[in-house]
Amino acid sequence: MEIIEKIDRWHRNFDEWKGKYGRDLVRGELDSDYPFVANNHAALVPVRRALPLLNLALITSAGAYLDGMEGFDTTTRGGDMTMREIPTEIDAGDLLYSARGYDPSAVRRDMNTQIPLARLAEFSANGIIGSLSPVFFSFCGFIPDAATFAEQALPRLVERVRRYEVQAALLIPASRLCHQSIALAARALEASGVPTMMLAVNERDILEAVRPPRAVYHQGELGSVVGAPDFKEYQRRVLDEALRSMETWDQPGVRKLSVKLESAVEAERGER
After folding, report:
1. Does residue 1 belong to any structural domain of this protein?
2. Distances (CA, A) of 144 to 16, 223, 254
3. Which 8-state DSSP code applies to residue 71?
4. Which residues contact 70 (CB under 8 A, 6 or more apart)?
5. Residue 163 is part of which domain span?
6. In terms of Cα–Cα distance, which of 101, 102, 97 is closest to 86?
7. Run means of pLDDT, 10 residues per run, the chain, 272 residues
8. Tell me, what DSSP letter sits at residue 224?
9. Does residue 27 fall inside a structural domain?
10. Structurally, how many domains does the chain consist of?
11. Contact 65/135 with Cβ under 8 angstroms?
12. Which pTM value belongs to this model?
């Protein structure tokens, strides 16, 4: 499976767009003419283990890095193509964010809005998933140059993820353009034999164009894709429905989660 189908055509479209709107590559903004990747096909790798037996990897495009690491370059025109491997057993205060294309205030308040390590640790302890990989993988997903990302960065990501012998990967974007970058990462992982689940919000047009193998979305917000800060129960519901649905997919596609922001009872009580 090609990560970007008809990549030469995309290169031409991107070069034409860059000639007209190149300033936006620096500002961290995209206009409506940006040439999002358009694929016609997607491969799907079956999930060969029950969820409680899976070793799960987490991949985020929120630009997270450890205090003391070099941050991501948010000024480079085509996007920073580097990755970071970060231990999953860390304190939220140890993380910093090179945010591009999204407001980082939510993830700075509650890491789990974008990097749900606490929720996934709960899932592992409760037997919902088997285990969480000892590291999670982070990159800055505002990458306009999708072709270079697919050709140069994604092979490195795939090699590092496979090194940890994971049985599945959960991928979470942060910005609108991150939805394209994460979808491409999911395609690369699936092509290498790693089943994936992409958790998204409100960007179905991008999902249906780029075609990640499995993607679910809900009525959330960019910058807090898993759920609002400190809204633990909603974060759990989103992740639970997304992960449990992995076992039922028999063909590539995009599905809307049924989870609601608040139940009727919670709304009446003013609870979160």
Report:
1. no
2. 13, 18, 23
3. P
4. none
5. 7-21+35-269
6. 97
7. 94 89 62 90 93 96 96 92 96 95 97 98 97 97 96 97 96 97 98 97 95 96 97 97 94 92 49 48
8. B
9. no
10. 1
11. no
12. 0.93
